[in-house]
Design a protein that fits this description.
With 119 residues, the protein is of the alpha+beta class. 35% of the residues lie in helices and 31% in strands. The protein is built from two helices and five strands; from the N terminus they run βββββαα. Strand 3 and strand 4 form a beta hairpin. Helix 1 runs antiparallel to helix 2. The termini are far apart. The relative contact order is 0.15. The model has no long low-confidence stretch (mean pLDDT 85).
Length: 119
């Protein structure tokens, strides 16, 4: 008997995963979720994204890398049988960027003990 399917990893990093109790669904592609953060032994942070519960992706550790991986994701979403149009794929990419920025804001707030939104 086979066990549950293990998600395929893309841009995998060796890290400790801090998973959300409830994944955050992308409003433009509900099959895409942000499941939490991965923290490497070097202290780098990566978003954990899962697509259709079969593909797990790690986006991080910096804005430049997240931007590049988001471009790869949006291009991939425009290909294949269930391809999204460019506008829709770009909305997904904007959601990933927003989630990354929110995660970084939360981490900075936790590190300095200040809510940046109140400044």
């Amino acid at each position: 008997m086979m066990g549950p399917e293990v998600p395929r990893g893309h841009f995998h990093v060796t890290a400790r995963e801090l998973r959300l109790e409830e994944p955050e669904r992308c409003p433009f592609l509900p099959a895409l979720t942000m499941d939490g953060l991965a923290v490497t032994p070097e202290g780098q942070h990566h978003l954990i994204l899962t697509l259709r519960a079969t593909d797990r992706m790690y986006f991080g550790p910096d804005e430049r890398t997240v931007t590049r991986r988001t471009q790869i994701l949006t291009m991939a979403l425009q290909r294949g049988e269930a391809a999204l149009d460019r506008y829709h794929a770009d909305l997904v990419g904007e959601w990933v960027a927003t989630v990354w920025e929110a995660a970084i804001d939360e981490l900075v707030d936790a590190m300095i003990g200040t809510d940046l939104a109140k400044l």
